[in-house]
């Protein structure tokens, strides 16, 4: 059943996060960096005009 599979997937993710506690931190940092680099790119285009 779909609910069972969904729950299983979620628990696998939780297990992974427990084993690799720094994963969420890395993900958050990479998301921050992505936002910043996108903003920089937009600023660069404005400067270029």
Helices and strands, in N-to-C order?
Answer: HH
- Percentage beta strand: under 5%
Determine the fraction of residues in helical runs and give it as a percent range: over 70%
How confident is the prediction overall: mean pLDDT? 75
Report the principal-axis shape: elongated
The total of helices stands at: 2
Q: What structural class is derived from the secondary structure elements?
A: mainly alpha
The number of domains is 1
Ends apart, CA distance between termini: 56 Å
- Biggest β-sheet strands, sense, barrel: none
Count of beta strands? 0
Task: Give unreliable regions as ranges.
Answer: none
What Rg is obtained from the alpha carbons, in whole angstroms? 18 Å
What topology does this entry show?
Elements: H1 2-19, H2 22-48
Please, could you describe this protein's structure?
- The structure is a single chain.
- The chain has 49 residues and is mainly alpha-helical.
- It has one domain (2-40).
- The protein has 2 helices and no strands.
- The protein has helices at residues 2-19, 22-48.
């Amino acid at each position: 059943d779909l609910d069972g599979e969904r729950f299983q997937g979620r628990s696998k993710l939780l297990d992974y996060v427990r084993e690799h506690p720094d994963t969420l931190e890395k993900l958050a940092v990479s998301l921050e960096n992505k936002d910043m680099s996108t903003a920089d790119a937009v600023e660069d285009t404005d400067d270029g005009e």
